[in-house]
Design goal:
The relative contact order is 0.22. The chain is of the alpha+beta class. The protein is 31% helix and 39% strand. Strands 1-7-6-5-4-3-2 form a seven-stranded antiparallel beta sheet, covered by helices on one side. β4 and β5 form a beta hairpin. The model has no long low-confidence stretch (mean pLDDT 90). The chain has four helices and seven strands; from the N terminus they run βααββαββββα.
């Protein structure tokens, strides 16, 4: 059984600027600078103004919830691939796929970047499935919460990056 989820991540920057940042290699490299257990692979298979971001990271043991530690077979390694398309008017669409090593789970869904009165937002709609007998359903909300926290962290990084660019 899988769990459906949706949430919105607000940004205080216009759609065009946010899309330019999301499809910019430099901002992703700065995001992962110093991350000792992470890998990052960036490409633009669909051309200019698009990006494919593949990232992996080993979760530190102190960040893994107890219920997950009990069923882990080895290290928890998180993998995520985001694909962003070019802007079509004021809307950009994207997709994401995620998986974990150490516990069998899958996550996938869509992004929609659109304008708001305050700047822009990304609507996230997806599903997550954790294939662990008895406790998979209890872990799925944790996976959703982790994805939400990661996207909020990316929002903070991107907005700080814009602030740094403005003051340079």
């Amino acid at each position: 059984m899988s769990r459906k989820f949706s949430f919105t991540v607000p940004y205080a920057v216009p759609v065009e600027d946010l899309h330019r940042a999301l499809t910019n290699d430099e901002i992703w490299r700065s995001r992962f600078a110093g991350a000792k257990t992470a890998t990052l692979d960036l490409s633009h298979p669909d051309g200019a103004d698009t990006i494919r971001i593949h990232m992996t990271e080993k979760a530190s043991d102190d960040k893994v919830p107890g219920i997950v530690r009990k069923v882990l077979k080895n290290d928890l390694v998180l993998s995520r691939t985001d694909n962003w398309q070019a802007l079509q008017g004021e809307i950009a669409k994207g997709t994401f796929e995620g998986a974990t090593g150490g516990i069998t789970s899958e996550m996938s869904g869509t992004y929609e970047l659109r304008p708001t009165a305050e700047g822009s937002e990304i609507e996230v709609v997806g599903t997550v499935q954790v294939k662990v007998p008895l406790v998979g359903g209890a872990i799925e909300p944790l996976a959703e919460q982790l994805h939400h926290r990661v996207l909020e962290s990316e929002r903070k990084h991107i907005e700080e990056w814009f602030a740094t660019q403005a003051s340079a």
